[in-house]
User: Fold this.
Amino acid sequence: MPPLVPLARQLDRLATSAGSLLGWFTLAMVLLQSAVVLLRYGFDGGSVALQDAVLYLHGAVLMLGLAYALHTDAHVRVDVFYRRMSHRGRAWVNAVGTLVFLLPLCVFIILGSWHFTAASWAVREASSSAGGLPGIFLLKSLIPLSALTLGLQGIAQLCRSLAELMLVESRPPAASVVAEEPVTKAVEEAGA
Assistant:
C-alpha cells in the first residue's frame, strides 16, 4: 500500500489535531456563554462582544468539526444496508460516495463561497452590532476552509477505502474473509 495508507494517516492526523483544538473551542464557548448568562441575569448587564465571541466559536466548532466528524465516522448515515455489508462492500460504498457526492460537494462549496468570502475580506467586514467584535470576514472564511478540510478528510477516506479494496483483492479467497478483525486494522498493520 505504498502511498495510500501514509497519505491517509497524515490527513487523519490533521483532522485529529483540529478535533483536539475544537474541544478547547467548545470549552471556551461554554465558559463564555456562562459568563454572558451570569452578566445578564446576575448583574443585569451584558456584552455584545462576549455574545459575538460565542457565536464565532460556535461557527468554528461547527464548520471545522465536519472533517473531524468524518474522520471519526460520526456523521449521520442511514445504516439499513451499510451495517450489514462486508468490509469490502463498505469500502466500495465509502469510495463511491466520496467520489460522487462528498468531493464534488466540497468543490461546489469552495467555488460558491469564494466570491462571498473575498468580498468580506475586501472590506474587512465587522459586526453590525455596536460593541460587537470585528472580524466577520474571518468567520466567513470558515465556509471555504471547512469545505477544504472536509475534502481533505474525504481524500483520506478514499485512500483507506482503496487500500482496503486492494488488500482484499490481493489476498487469496480464503484469507479475504476475516471473522472479527476489520480490514482497516490489517491495512494499518501492512502499512506499518
